[in-house]
Write a structure and sequence with these properties.
Layout: E1 2-13, E2 17-29, E3 33-39, H1 45-52, E4 60-65, E5 68-69, H2 74-79, E6 81-84, H3 96-106, H4 111-125, H5 140-151, E7 158-162, H6 170-185, E8 189-194, H7 197-203, E9 206-211, E10 214-219, H8 221-228, H9 233-246
Parallel strand pairs: 3-8, 3-9, 6-7, 7-8
Antiparallel strand pairs: 1-2, 1-4, 4-5, 9-10
Helix pairs in contact: 3-4, 3-5, 8-9
The protein binds adenosine-5'-triphosphate (ATP).
Residues 11, 13, 19, 21, 39, 41-47 line the site of adenosine-5'-triphosphate.
Length: 247
């Protein structure tokens, strides 16, 4: 479960001054559900996700993630969250298997648990063919699958994916979308940020549209279509953001 309450984050930049990257954002995502965070470049998606994963501290507001407060119990939040960000990196000299094992041990898993999780994640993500190859030889898709596996090795209750299919070919993107759906079906709480409307369509039970740091519209895809009188989610997005700008 994720419960964000009036989350705000202000950055202070020498050139740009104060940047209100996230502005009073509140939403809830329940177990067995995927919450889609939709927004243009610079809207505040990544900052919101980093606040939830405790990689940043909110300027105001707070959130509970898997039952723990991000301000009061950040270590417990981290133990129950898997965060796949754009900068999730791999060690070039390690193989995918070693990479997963390394993060498994960091998360306190036994050798037997690491072996079992590696087997399962490699099955689910289709990684067996390259599990024992070094990460520096990987394609973008292999890297992303390995990053997902190392992020989720401790089987967290809450999974945060920040644009996980960016730059991937159609087949790899589909495999990842399928994997995320299966995580939801196993009862995980999933938050998923993307620019790709077809993924929102396929995946998200609820969508939050973020613009200039503010959550300007929220609902199921069907509710948003009705509210904005548009079938195409891209049109819904344009209208929601346009209404916010006009206001
Ligand atoms: N560490 C930082 N210092 C200063 N400003 C920042 C920092 N991180 C983000 N920002 C600014 O905060 C705003 C929101 O950025 P954020 O990365 O959250 O947007 P986003 O919706 O994830 O965009 P994208 O789709 O391009 O990844 C932007 O104006 C960005 O330049």
């Amino acid at each position: 479960m994720i419960n964000a309450r009036n989350l705000s984050k202000v950055f202070h930049d020498k050139k740009r001054g104060a940047i209100r990257a996230v502005d009073d954002v509140s939403f809830t995502c329940e177990p067995g559900r995927i919450y889609g965070l939709l927004g243009a470049n610079g809207a505040g998606k990544t900052t919101t996700l980093r606040l939830l994963a405790t990689l940043l501290r909110p300027t105001a507001g707070t959130a509970t993630v898997a039952g723990f407060d991000v301000l009061a119990e950040p270590a417990k939040v981290r133990a129950h969250v898997g965060f796949l960000g754009a900068s999730t990196a791999l060690y070039a000299r390690l193989t995918a298997r070693e990479m997963i094992a390394y993060f498994g041990r960091l998360n306190g898993l036994s050798d037997a648990a690491v072996r079992a999780r590696t087997q399962l994640l490699a099955d689910q993500l289709g990684m067996h063919e390259f599990l024992d190859r070094r990460c520096d030889k990987f394609s973008t898709g292999m890297k992303q699958k390995t990053s997902i596996a190392r992020t989720l090795v401790h089987d967290p209750a809450v999974m945060i994916f920040d644009e996980p299919t960016l730059g991937l070919d159609v087949m790899t993107a589909r495999a990842i979308v399928k994997f995320v759906r299966e995580c939801r079906d196993r009862g995980k709480t999933v938050i998923y940020s993307t620019h790709v409307m077809s993924e929102v369509e396929k995946l998200c039970d609820k969508v939050g549209i973020i613009h200039d740091g503010k959550l300007c519209a929220e609902g199921t895809p069907a509710e948003l279509r009705t509210r904005y009188g548009e079938q195409d989610l891209e049109e819904v997005f344009v209208k929601a953001v346009g209404t916010e700008e006009a206001a």
